[in-house]
Design a protein that fits this description.
It is a single chain. By secondary structure, this protein is mainly alpha-helical. About 65% of the residues lie in helices and about 0% in strands. It is built from 20 helices and two strands. The chain has a two-stranded antiparallel sheet. Strand 1 and strand 2 form a beta hairpin.
Amino acid sequence: MPAARPPAPPRRRMATPLLADAGGELYPFIFIAASGFLLAMFAASLYNARVLPAFLAAGTLLAVAVPVIRWPVAMSAAWLLLAGSSPEMWLGDLIGQENTITAIVKVIGLALLAVCMLRYGARLDPFNPAFAYVGMFIIGMAHGLWPTLTVLDSVRSLIGAAAPFAFSFSRLSRRWCNAIIGATIWTPTVIVGFGALLALAHLRPLFTSLGGVIRLQGSTHPAFLGGFAAAAIYAALVELYRDGRQRNVWAIVINYLILVLSGARAPLAGALVVTTLAFFFLKSEHFSAARRLPMVLLGMLALPVLVAFASGSSSIRLLNVLSSDARDLSGRDVIWPLFEQAWDASPWFGWGIGAGKVVVDPESLIAHLLGTTAAHNEYLRMGVDGGYVGLGLLILSMALWCIQGTRRARQTDRFILRAVFVAFAVHSFTDNTLIAATASVMFAWISAVFARSALEAEAAQDAARDAAPPVVRTRRPVEGLARSGR
């Protein structure tokens, strides 16, 4: 007699959120908390009026916290667009305090992470590059810091360096992932549009002239805009191979146009390589070869046109680079030897997280001539911060993080993302890719794609388990009865 079907094993579910959707039950709590806060502020002001600014700042944070807790998906996408607009630049032009504004933007991102962890649950991400930064910080404290680097500065640098990778420590919803991916795709367009509004208000020019060449900057710096555009191209390319929608084709074209006008050479080279590899070597049911051919032909026609114009143009940076008159445009040949000397002074363990920011004195002649103290080379900067040991930890963690995050992803996602990591590693030889605002957008998008792949893999496992045929078991005869022939 067949036995009953055994019960199916329980499905893996997301951790129970601590902040459930309270709906109307949340409003009485908000009213009570706001009333108590106002009473406390009134009592404190009677005691000492100088505490009022602190209460006003705390009240502002509480006012911001309410919509963040209520709508974390929308607030996360809005934060990504805000980070991409680079308020430390357009707002810094008006009020100064660029470092403070940058810190506030990153703190808001960490606050959003805390909300996501409370809503969706935390998760262990053992290969997250943030652990490499923690290791470099510990090594630096044990070895000794750079003479002008304080412990507090090193702690701030640690938080800032690890913040872009933080969202991978939270389980994330499908809606959150889709919102972040969409925001990444359209961040450059928002930057240019917002920059146009600033230009109309005579607050910040839409284009800038650096070294005698014209570059599109929007509300940010041209190099940052190029980094955002490259990340947007990668994000749109992943989505195009998943669903084949025409809007992703237009997104790629628009972001390539922005990338070319920004004059960012390394991001453009990386985006071209990744796009070319995907177009020629990656199969997709949703993006056929027939649809790729017009875009390939357009790109092949555009390149010789650019080269032809390059021979007689030096005002557009990309054309200036393609011409024979192109030179080093960022002073890397001047500033790199300073970082090499600092690294040689402590080759194995470096000088602690944040040392790369203070190697060049901001008041020195080189800093004033170049307009920056950054290395324009993440390997040099990480070598100064952590030496060969710290740099090795970071490279290893990035590689393992990529492999782990794409292990269960779709074939198209896995191919493009791993190509993106390689392009990012090459790009890091000539730019500040890990400390710039572009890192916050880039790695938030990668965390979203990793989380979506994990959710899809879990859903596929659950579907396969539900579709499996029932296990039929027959009763085994009792040993005594079998021997007697009964």
